[in-house]
Amino acid sequence: MDVLSSRLLLRPADPDRSQAFYRDALGLAVYREFGPPEHRGVVFFLGNGLLEVSGHADRPPHGLALWVQVRDVAAEVARLADAGVPVVAAPVLQPWGLLEATVEDPDGLPIVLVEVPAGHPLRTDLRPPG
Predict the structure, then answer these.
(1) E strand or H helix at 50, and its extent?
(2) Does 35 score more than 90 pLDDT?
(3) Among residues of the chain, what percentage have pLDDT more than 90?
(4) Whose CA, among 5, 55, 87, 88, lies 20 to 30 Å from 107?
């Protein structure tokens, strides 16, 4: 398989509410919008990926979470809590060395906010000197 592009497709219970959440509360930038006004789909930039919020589902997704790396997880959790976003788990340094917190989207989808602390192997340049 030669993958040229990819995106996560999210089918929310209330598309307008979820699109507003991802655009306004989370603050994701819009990559593109498509479809007629009554069934508008929105694709958001999600770091090095894309998140499409379109269509409708009768029940929330099961067994899915979004993993989003941010520069300052404590600041993002405080900002989102002030905006009324449910904070499920406060920032905690995990055994694998990442600082993680969890918030929820309007359908209860977990969004794991991750900060890579200084000194973590993900921040280490493993290339040989020279």
Answers:
(1) strand 49-53
(2) yes
(3) 77
(4) 5
